[in-house]
Structures are given as structure tokens and as C-alpha cells.
Amino acid sequence: TATATATATATVRCGGGCRRGGVREAISPSIDEDAGTSVDDDDAMNGCGGASVLSSSVAMSRGGAGATTLAQRAKQRATGLRKPSAFGVVPDACARVDFAVIGSGIAGLSYALDAAEVGDVAIITKASAFEASTSYAQGGISAVVDKLDSVDEHVRDTCIAGGYLCDERAVRVMVEDSRAAVETLIERGTRFTRRESDGALHLAREGGHSRHRIVHADDMTGKEIERALLEAARAHPRITFYEHHFAMELLKTRDGESPRCTGALVVDEASGTTTAFVASSTVLACGGAGHLFPSTTNPVVSTGDGVAMAMRVGATVANMEFMQFHPTALFTGPGGATKLVANENAFLITEAVRGHGGQLYNALGERFMSRYDAREELAPRDIVARSIDSEMKRTKSNCVFLDITHVGADEIRANFPGVAAELAKRGLDMTMERIPVVPAAHYMCGGVSTNENGETSLRGLFACGEVAYTGVHGANRLASNSLLEGVVFARRAVASVTDEINALRAELPALDVDEDELRRWLDKECLALTRACATSSAFVTKDDAWERDMRAEIQRTMWNAAGIVRTTVEMEDALRKLQTLSRACEDRAAVCSGYTMGTAEISNLIVVGRLMLRCALMRKESRGLHYTLDYPEPVDDEKKPSFIVEDVAADASQRAPAAPR
């Protein structure tokens, strides 16, 4: 079956050496080899655009008798331009940089601003730089800044919310640096909300927190942080932005005793041309994978690219089963709020509304949270989301309602101006009406495994922000810890790489290397990248029926199998289904002579979806965000992270422990 994989209980060194006991799974090409359905040539598509090619089983042709493999087509494209390369893909250009930062949210920008004091930085982002998950974060950033609060209390709240699966050492590192993180953001221009009485930071409270410790900028904190950091980064002479550039694959040296990451192959979305960025240090800071599910608060860029790229170069990933569904996204279906755009993302109703006294009611007009948790609306997100899901099923309704009308209208508008304005656009007055809400995919708590300095299991590759698994979120992220994690671990990653930057530079060609010499080095030293070929036609497609239908099928599959409530049978079926979709995606790329951006994103979503299902099937209990009817209770013996590694026979990392703080 799809779950017949080699697993082992072990103490694994993740990243640079933080030791965590956990379950490991090997990724083997033979897994799912017999899964899925056969595909007939009769389903072959005609060309790369046009009508949908998905049948009821979402299968497509293997290409027919005249089809060539993607590797062959990549070589055909190269002929006449440059001599075909052992590197697998002939990039149109090569560039040597010190730091390649993939992503432009709070983690990527924080890393870039610190790294620019050491060397030149290339920020690679597949949309405009502002289009990052950070820009959509409403609530705030948690920090111990009040004299009545303490590090111990914040650590305790985090571990409780995380189902006691958090790495407490990593949590303490984050919390102890929280004040400094906020001060750094202020120094870089962030304007947080302050009290009128004394000018001190105004602190809000959110679900799961025992204290008021949420530093915020009204109810649009992420947008303000992103504005400030982007302005600072654009003004820095050593930072260059490559907007609308898609990171296709990571570069890795050939197998040996100590392979390392050497940068990324990037596609200019406008022209379809490729550039190999050879970097002393490569940083994944490209967010999560909310678009695995049909309803998500994430921006369109959140397609799991970072985790998928890291997995393909053999980096360890962990805890992928823990996808957080925000309990209160605005419901715009039948009977809900007005939808402004046909395919809009779910609008988030910040956690702070419940922290300010908001109450949840079901379709029958009953408050219900007391039936599920003594903390009622202030329970952690996983509990609130499951409670809402249960009430919707019990009452056979499409949503529940969030009510804050008992608070004064002026107070509501003063504390939630952004939410109030967005709802007003939709004809809803939150000072007088209840808000229809449903859970929506919001945050990926697992990711590329790192230590406390952002180091992954592959030398030269770092990860920070949502794409990373640092251990701080455990089985469920505590509200407003994500922005804090992004700043703290990005800055620690720069401090770590600074200590070894000269050694990392020395392993690669000089920064002023001639481009032809850099090409020869890539050809000799780096692994072939047969997947990385961009299509010879338009790289960015518009309203492609195949891509639209394929995404929808992936999202239906994941929601049915890996949503708020799960079962083993449904997850095993979904794993087989994703294998079939993966083959269809490969065939599509072959027929199109390479990957379009949409096909590449779909491929990444499938990789991440399979990782999520594998981790979920490994966990024989319910904990935090992972709730399965087959194992409905927590089990002490299962209280350990889930790791997926490339080779079960090899330990995840043999690098030295993280440097002392």
C-alpha cells in the first residue's frame, strides 16, 4: 500500500544538530509505484494551452508514441544555443552572489537587511515583493515587553498551545529575543500602535495567551511591517530585488562526503529566461502552502515551493501533518458576506476580535464554545477550528457567526479599522451585525527542518519563517508567534553564516568570476537539473484550463483527506491520487517542452501534499492540528516530531551542534 514505507524511531540531528527524538520516513522511488490508475493515449491533450485535459480520474496521456522525455526536450532546446551541459539545463545567464534570499516577507527581508552588512544580497520573489504572507498578517507580533509578563509564561503558553510537541529550547530562544526583535522592527521604521496616555506600546491579547503581549499596528500589523522592511531593503545599496522571478530548483554539488547547496535556478517570468544564481549562502523564506486547500487566507504565492525544492535536494522536512486552519475566515458562500472578486482568498478576521470579547454563535443562535473548552473563545486555534467544524456539521450549516456587537461601536472601529473597512465594502457592519465565519487553511507549522540558527541538513542552505520547521510551533502555532519566529531565526541565521562566510565563499568560484568560467564550474560540480527547464512558450499562462482543473482536484483531494478531521483510509486514497496527479504533471511538462509557472507550482503542491499525508499517516494519535478518527486521543509514546528524510539508512545531519547564543 501507499503507507508501506520504511519507518524507524530514532533520535535525529535536524539542521545543525538540535537533537529531537522523532519518527523518520524514507523517501524511495519505489513508493507508490503501483498506485493510481493507468493512463490511456486516448486522453492525450492537443498542445499546451486550450481546453482541460483532465478526465474524471484526472489522468492524462504519457505522451504517446511521438512524445519525448523532458530531459530530451531540454537538450533539444539547448542545441543551437550552447553545448548541452552535464548540468542538465543550460541557463541563459549565470550570476555569482554572496546571499540568495528566496522570498520577501518578514523573514526574508530581515535576513537580507542583516546579511547586506556582510555581502551583496539578491532577493528573489515570484510576485511583487509586497505580495507576501506577512502583508496579510493582521493580529500582531507576540513579545515579552510588559513588566507584568515573563519569558517563562510566554514559553508555557506556547508549549501548551503546541500540544507539548514544541522544542522548548527553541521556544525559549525565540521568546528571550522577542523584545530585541520588536526593537529592531521599530528601528527599521515600523510604526506600532501606542497608548495615547503615555506613548508606550499598546498590547493586545489573543487566544492561548495568558497575558496582553501582542504588539500590533492597529489590525493590519503585517502590512505595516512589510512596508517598513521593504522601504529599508530597497534603500540599501547592497540589496537587489528580482521581482516576478520564479525559483525553480536549488543547486547542489554532486554526491560526495559533504554535498552542499550552491544557489538556485531562477526563471524570469516575463521572458522565460533562466539564471543560475550561485550563492555562498541560500535562504528559503518563501512561506507556506495554503493553496493545497480550496479555502485559504494565504496569498497566491503560497504553493509550497520552498519545501518542495528542499525535498528534491535531500533536505530533511518535519511535522508536515500540522496545517493550521484559522478558525475565523470570512464566509462568502451562500448566505454569507458579499464576495468582491470571483477567486479571492479568504479574508481573515483576526484572532484579536475574539481576544477583545468576540463571541461565537452557531446557526441556531447558540453560543457553543463552552461545550468544547473552558477557555471558550480564547482557546487555541486548533480547538476553536475543530469546535466550529463540529457545530457546522451538527447544525448542517455553512458557517458560524462571530459577534462583537456588545462592544461599543467607537471602540470596535478604533481597534479594528482594517477589518471594519473590509467588511463595510461587503455591506456588513461589524458594530451592528454578526460576522459569518468558517475555518480556512492558514499556516504550515511543519517545514524544512532547521536548528536554532536556521541551518538545514544541507550545508549552505538555510530556512526561516513559515517554510521552516524550527520546533517552536509544535502541533499548533500560538497566535502571533509566526512574525516573531520570522525575525528571530532570520537574524540568528545571518549571525551563524557570518561566522563561516569565508569558508562558504572559498568553496565556490570567486565573486568576480567570469560568467563562462562559472558555467564550466556548474557543469563540472553541480547535479543535473532536468526538472528545471522552462517551457519555450509563455512561462506565465493565463486562465489555463488544465492548470485550473488540476489545482482544483488537488485542493479537493487534500481538503477531503487532510482537512480538520482525518481518517487513515481517506489519507491513503489521497496519497495514491496525488501520485497519479504527479505523473500527469510530468507528462504535461514533457508535452509542453518544459514547465510553465503554473505547472511548476502544481508540481510543488503535489510534493508538499504527499509529504503532509505521509507525516499524518506516520502519527498514530491525535494531537494539536492533527485529528484522526482512527486514533482520536493523544498518546505519550507518539509525542515526538515526524521527520521525512531522503534515505532512512542515513542520519538527517552530522553537522556540529548550533553555536552557543
Which helices and strands occur, and which strands form pairs?
Layout: E1 7-14, E2 18-26, H1 70-78, E3 93-102, H2 106-115, E4 121-125, E5 141-142, H3 151-161, H4 168-176, H5 178-187, E6 203-204, E7 214-215, H6 221-235, E8 239-243, E9 245-252, E10 261-268, E11 274-284, H7 305-312, E12 317-318, E13 323-330, H8 351-355, E14 359-361, H9 381-395, E15 400-403, H10 409-415, H11 417-425, E16 435-444, E17 447-449, E18 461-463, E19 468-469, H12 481-499, H13 501-506, H14 515-525, H15 545-562, H16 568-591, H17 597-618, E20 642-645
Parallel strand pairs: 2-20, 3-4, 3-11, 4-8, 11-18, 17-19
Antiparallel strand pairs: 1-2, 5-7, 6-7, 9-10, 10-11, 12-17, 12-20, 13-16, 14-15, 15-16
Helix pairs in contact: 2-6, 2-12, 3-4, 7-17, 15-16, 15-17, 16-17
Question: What is the terminal-to-terminal distance?
Answer: 46 Å
Low-confidence stretches: 1-20, 26-47, 50-84, 647-661
Write down the Rg.
24 Å
Put simply, the count of helices is: 17
Q: What class do helices, strands and sheet pairing give?
A: alpha/beta
Helical content stands at 25-40%
Determine the mean pLDDT.
85
Looking at the structure, what is the overall shape? globular
Main β-sheet description: 7 strands, mixed
The portion of residues forming beta strands comes to 15-25%
Would you count the extended β strands for me? Answer: 20
